[in-house]
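Question (not urgent): is this output format expected?
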Amino acid sequence: MRAVLQRVLKAHVVVEQSEIGTIGAGWLVLLGVGPSDSLRDVSYLADKILNLRAFEDTNGKMNHSVLDNGGDILVVSQFTLYADCRKGRRPSFIGAAPPQLAEPLYDKFVDHLRQSGLKVATGRFQADMKVTLVNDGPVTIIIDSPHDAV
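Got this back:
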């Protein structure tokens, strides 16, 4: 699994001109699922995101997690995180998991985050989404589950 985290002051996602998810301060998580991902990757990545100390304390140091701050999380599925652009001019997406594998893992990932008690909003799997965000920092972090690590 691969996640791009963006620390935000607020974010929302729109599908077919309807807002389906909105958050205040916290993480916008763009989530990609690879073909060999499993529930183990779900747990690893969700726990890493919940506990990652990338929010500032009173001294301006990144010492707090989204859990510490009681922040929100918006999760948006993003198969394009597995784009391969090494050949030609059109990206290949064969490195992404097929929807029948990816969607259940995406749902489990969201469920795992929700077990934390934080507000967790989502986009819609396989939908054309419009995501609006206000970056905080900006802080952008890429996290891969262990077998996807470079």
